[in-house]
């Protein structure tokens, strides 16, 4: 059976800056997978290429065995994406956003309505469903974005920092929804800086540093008896950032 995600030698450069320098990312089907790495490691660039939002300079990407760049429509029908920056249709209400997205995906209108109602309820957005998305808080935007990404029941779901700005109660709800989703054989790939969360949720982890995957596999293989945070610091190297130079900071005269 094909992996949910498999890239080979994925490469992207912005001018002189190599953002992704030959990434072999693997995520088995049915995984709850975490993509971690320090700021600037190349996570967003990798996810953007994998989801067909950014054209790679080199390499191959397959999702459930389908090539992302030779079969873009087929692949996009099969995936859900919560992108970084959450570009949403700001002048639609939350409910309109789901109705519009569902119809764009070709789902019959009454079925879209049924799914939208259920998702709004699970995401605790029923009261805010008629408010314009532009007036949503950060956490509400994440939740409506996730609802929109789930509406067509994708086989693989890609989430860039899905829990950022989401309150703990809503985060638990999102986690329950995602757990149920992976339990049925679908795959979640999400990027996060919160190691405790990745450790708690994920059964598969890919660690990126400086544009490369430096460790990848089942959570316990990557941790090797350490906490994920310790493993992460060992893998990416604790950086001396010259903080000893901040002698003027604190204790005002
Ligand atoms: N559009 C762009 N133009 C120029 N450089 C870019 C662009 N997008 C990303 N980069 C550079 O590519 C590198 C990887 O960035 P990327 O956003 O993929 O990292 P990241 O791992 O997602 O970081 P973070 O955790 O901070 O979100 C960085 O050095 C960044 O400055």
From TrEMBL:
| PROSITE patterns registered for this protein in UniProt | ABC_TRANSPORTER_2
Question: Where does this one sit in the cell?
Answer: Cell membrane
The Gene Ontology terms for molecular function here are: ATP binding; ATP hydrolysis activity
Q: Which Gene3D superfamilies did the record assign?
A: P-loop containing nucleotide triphosphate hydrolases (3.40.50.300)
Topology class, membrane: Peripheral membrane protein
Is Mitochondrion one of the keywords? no
UniProt protein name: ATP-binding cassette domain-containing protein
Instruction: Give the organism, scientific name.
Output: Microbispora catharanthi
